[in-house]
């Protein structure tokens, strides 16, 4: 915004306050009909961050070009020029952004470590990216709290036969009944 040295001493504090409001995204507009109007022009920081990363993702850049040519109906440009799939925010292939979403959805105070299905259902309403379900399953599989009660063995960390055995017995029982 700049220096306030050229302004009268009694008005400097007012000008500095207007500058602070501008940094917060508030605009004061002088209107001849109404007087001074306050306009909130703040942006969501996550959406702005996604937009900056969308410009670097080759797949989303290609989709954005198709949207501009109007050859794709499912995708559109939303507010701030962000690419959206049927209203859902397209998250670029940037591990930091997706990890941030996973941690927020999985580690929330109110949800107590939901499984992959619950996280998938929650995130698919708001966000889109290719391979979303697989990424979510991998994230939940790496969570130490979720894996605490499950016994695994061997080099590939497969489930213990103790967990698999009863299910095979049930299958054999139901097949004999049919």
Automatic annotation (TrEMBL):
It holds the Pfam family Integrase_H2C2. It comes from the Eukaryota. Residues 94-148 form the Integrase zinc-binding domain. This is Integrase zinc-binding domain-containing protein. It comes from Solanum verrucosum.
